[in-house]
Write a structure and sequence with these properties.
- This protein is mainly alpha-helical.
- A hairpin with a 5-residue loop joins strand 1 and strand 2.
- The radius of gyration is 22 Å and the shape is globular.
């Protein structure tokens, strides 16, 4: 179980004196009706609470509670909308079939959530360095803000391309209504933030602080940022650092990554922290709503009932190799037994094949299965192994990295050669194809497949997505219409 057992839901000055709420697992809420820029940022507790607020966006509908699974999963080749059809989940249907208007709710939420998180990080990075507090806490808070700002900008630049780059709190509307910054400059800022964060963050935490961003969170994310830009030597260097020095190791059982009891565990580099207490109709946390949204549809008012969104595609399910244990940890298959003893039907509304997303399922003893405390991994050690493999190619180092992931998938000893290994002598092109395929199945439903398909070119060549109507301009989302309406400096992405 996650070790965060206190919460911060304070109200923080974000931009132009406005206040915004947040949810996070670190500290008790302080009174918010008297918080001002003049009387805040005085104590170490103030600095920590302001930093906690940056984390709060990770569990909202603009991040891991809706937008990222809509884009990362449904807009890819691993899943389809599901749900009840008609207008049910129209924002996901639009992504699924690449008929995405500038008013699409997923695109709007993702943009807004990232900039709320960035705004909070910018204030911490402005205020905390000038505070007279414990230097260790000061340094850590700065590092956490740098890491989280980089994470939010990474989501933005991959999803939309050029985006406004804001690194200081705005004072006037003119400071907000700025044009889009070239993606290369945004990536340069991301790299700088992560490099700085590596120097500011501790290697680990304990107690109530377990789950905060660490030096290794930042190093792993920097490896991924380099890979995304095809900076392969740099990606390999950072991946090696994580593998050799972080103290992290793979769970022997793949499914152990997705258990509440193992949150922030030995394979985890960083997770979005969810916790019990979610009201069914609360839109922004703290519980993960995927437990309900992905639950089998039409199964009655029981702890196993759900809406049946994010349904695995038949081609994806058929692509599992025989004996790959990841399938049973990830997919509801017809005939699977629910915790209440019933069986998964062979056909469900939205899923005529009877498949469902199982990876994030947490059974409940009450009917409020929205109330899921299961964290969502943002980065795991297995992904770092695959980053290293892709970066160095079919060298002994690259083969060892991918084969450790493959051995675990088939329940084999991680450090011993096996019949499931990719063999020496495989060509570079075939090896890269194998690594990308391994990412597809290792990281399935971890909200990243669309981003992988974009960077590898598969988004526009996949027969499945071509049949669904993907077009060349769908390599980015539309800039939200609501942003274009208020910021005359913005331009729309071509095609939208």
């Amino acid at each position: 179980m996650s070790t965060f057992n206190k919460y911060a839901c304070g109200a923080w000055l974000l931009t132009l004196g406005l206040l915004s709420g947040c949810g996070e697992k670190f500290l008790e809420e302080s009174p918010t009706d008297q918080v001002t820029d003049a009387n805040f940022y005085k104590t170490a507790t103030d600095a920590i609470q302001a930093t906690n607020a940056i984390y709060g966006e990770l569990i909202t509908q603009g991040q891991y509670n809706a937008a990222l699974w809509g884009l990362g999963d449904i807009a890819s080749d691993i899943s389809t909308t599901g749900g009840g059809g008609g207008g049910d989940g129209i924002e996901y249907q639009q992504l699924d079939f690449f008929n995405i208007p500038a008013t699409n709710l997923v695109a709007t939420r993702l943009w807004g959530s990232c900039y709320v998180g960035i705004g909070r990080a910018n204030i911490v990075l402005q205020k905390v360095p000038a505070m007279s507090i414990d230097p260790a806490i000061q340094k850590r808070c700065i590092g956490e803000a740098q890491f989280l700002r980089a994470k939010y900008y990474f989501d933005l630049v991959r999803a939309y391309g050029d985006v406004p780059l804001l690194t200081t709190p705005p004072v006037t509307l003119a400071d907000v209504n700025v044009p889009r910054t070239p993606a290369a400059q945004v990536y340069a800022q991301i790299e700088k933030d992560l490099t700085d964060a590596i120097g500011n963050l501790p290697p680990s935490y304990s107690g109530d602080d377990l789950g905060r961003a660490t030096k290794w969170s930042a190093t792993g994310l920097l490896a991924k940022v380099h890979l995304t830009q095809n900076k392969l030597p740099e990606a390999a260097t950072r991946a090696r650092e994580v593998i050799s020095s972080s103290g992290k190791s793979l769970w022997e059982n793949y499914a152990d990554n997705f258990k509440v009891a193992n949150e922030n565990g030995k394979e985890s580099l960083f997770e979005a922290q969810f916790f019990s207490g979610r009201n069914q109709w609360t839109q922004n946390g703290p519980g993960f709503s995927g437990n309900e949204f992905f639950g089998p549809r039409g199964q009655g008012a029981t702890p196993q009932g759900g809406y049946g969104f994010n349904i695995p595609e038949p081609d994806f399910v058929a692509g599992y190799e025989a004996g790959d244990r990841r399938r049973d940890a990830t997919i509801w298959m017809p005939g699977d037994t629910y915790p209440d003893g019933r069986k998964q039907p062979s056909s469900l509304p939205g899923s005529p094949n009877g498949y469902g997303c199982k990876k994030w399922f947490v059974g409940k003893t009450n009917t409020n299965i929205w109330d899921s405390e299961l964290n969502i991994p943002v980065m795991r050690l297995a992904e770092v192994y695959l980053i290293l493999a892709e970066a160095v190619g079919p060298t002994p180092e690259g083969l060892d990295a991918i084969n450790r992931v493959r051995r675990r998938a088939f329940g084999l000893p991680l450090g011993t050669a096996s019949p499931r290994d990719l063999a020496a002598g495989i060509g570079a092109a075939a090896f890269k194809t194998a690594v990308i395929r391994e990412r597809k199945y290792e990281l399935a439903f971890e909200m990243d497949r669309w981003f992988d398909m974009k960077r590898t070119g598969e988004l526009l060549t996949s027969p499945q997505l071509i049949a669904k109507g993907v077009k060349p301009f769908n390599i980015v989302l539309p800039i939200p219409q609501s942003e274009l309406d208020v910021n005359p400096g913005l331009t729309q992405n071509p095609g939208y």
